[in-house]
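We close this part of the discussion by returning to an individual protein. The sequence in question and its structure tokens are set out directly beneath this paragraph:
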Amino acid sequence: MPEDVSALHLILTGDPALLAIVRLSLIVSLSAVILAALIGVPFGALVALTRFPGREGVVVVLNALMGLPPVVVGLLVYLSLSRSGPLGSWGILFTPQAMVIAQTILVAPIIAALTRQTIEDLWAEYRDELTAMNVGPIVRVATLIWDARFSLVTTLLAGFGRAAAEVGAVIIVGGNIDGFTRTMTTAIALETSKGDLPLAIGLGMVLIAIVVAINALAWTARRAGERMAG
């Protein structure tokens, strides 16, 4: 049976190994995006709406961190969580929790940087109105985040896409342990090297479908925002 047919058979029959890998990948990536959003959205909005010494430097660093090399992040998290590291007492190296931490570090700068740009653009548009209404800083941030909610959904989906496609960091901190820390990307790399192409192709099909769905959701959110703005 050709590899692509075998891969499709694994998907259609709900192969337990494939489903377990997909389930873990989604749990880890979604958890990382939620944590990154809790950090990145408020921080990005704060940078957008405040003026302080060194702000331009913070913006430059934030934009630069969007391109963090995953393997470097994985190495830093590994060193932090290893027995001799400062967080070694947590005992979570080679666990899904360690993978969530690594992905959060990778995704948070993306969400923060995109949020900053979005909120800054809105602030330029609504500055006069909000200033005239004497709106306080907290209400101002909440108002602009709510107004930018559709754009921010697109930002979160972009972060999820980065997390779902990540391989370097999660291999280092997760160990690619079968049935425990094996994600779609790490499994594809491993199974391809072993010559088990049906499983690798099947996981690749699922990953592509997820990426397409993410882009479709981002486009839908953007269109909804444009219609509401119009």
Q: What stands out?
A: The radius of gyration is 20 Å. Residues 18-182 form a domain with the MetI-like fold fold (CATH 1.10.3720.10). The chain has one domain: 18-182.
